[in-house]
Design brief:
This protein has about 160 residues and is of the alpha+beta class. It has one domain: Gcn5-related N-acetyltransferase (GNAT) (Aminopeptidase, 3-Layer(aba) Sandwich). A hairpin with a 2-residue loop joins strand 3 and strand 4. The longest helix has 15 residues. The chain is globular and about 35 Å long. It binds coenzyme A. Coenzyme A binds next to strand 5, helix 2 and helix 3.
Length: about 160
């Protein structure tokens, strides 16, 4: 969908299962995760409510290096013009090379093609890198739920961000 010399964004495929599962497990951190780390035996990355077509993946230097998931904010017809980013993760070794920016840009293009007028997301208050990324891509803070999560001994805000498309 978007290509430069070594960075390529495409729709996910079933055979991305292992790479995406590994990125998820290797990158676990309370900076972004609200669930505990996975323990073996690991469940599948893709399943009936988490399908490859809902994900875009980035290949950097020929390696799957990150993903973004796009979904509906709610199942309501009255809310069908809004899309929600429901996961964004870049492998630690691929960070700082524009992978997240490429994934976000491609997902906003995909949402526009689907006819969406608005896109939203939630980010933990202490996740400074992600908040800076979203702000730089035109997202604004639209609400804060104070102390919504208790992570590693601290209450952490949940920050709602959004932008028009
Ligand atoms: C946040 C994250 C997705 C950024 O991925 P990335 O591929 O390294 O980001 P990019 O290289 O595309 O950077 C784009 C912009 O994001 C911001 N950014 C990225 N990493 C940053 C950091 N460590 N500190 C501050 N800003 C940062 C900057 O604005 C950067 O633009 P710049 O390079 O012009 O300064 C990545 O760190 C990650 O996967 N974190 C863990 C998962 C997560 O937090 N997901 C979001 C959950 S809501």
């Amino acid at each position: 969908m978007a290509q430069t010399s070594d960075l390529f964004v495409r729709v996910a495929r079933l055979d991305d299962e292992d790479a995406l599962g590994r990125i998820d497990r290797d990158s676990w951190s309370t900076l972004h995760a609200v669930k505990p780390p996975q323990e073996p035996p690991y469940g599948p990355f893709f399943h009936e409510t988490c399908l490859p077509e809902d994900f875009l993946v980035a290949e950097l230097d020929g390696r799957v290096s990150g993903y973004i998931r796009l979904g509906f904010a709610t199942p309501l017809a009255s809310n069908a013009h809004v899309r929600q980013i429901q996961g964004l993760l870049v492998a630690e070794e691929a960070r700082g090379r524009g992978v997240a920016r490429a994934l976000l840009s491609a997902v906003m293009d995909a949402a526009r093609r689907q006819g969406a007028r608005r896109i939203t997301l939630r980010v933990l208050g202490h996740n400074a890198p992600a908040r800076k990324l979203y702000e730089s891509m035109g997202f604004a803070v639209e609400g804060i739920q104070p102390g919504e999560f208790y992570l590693a001994g601290e209450y952490v805000d949940d920050v709602m961000m959004g932008r028009s498309l």
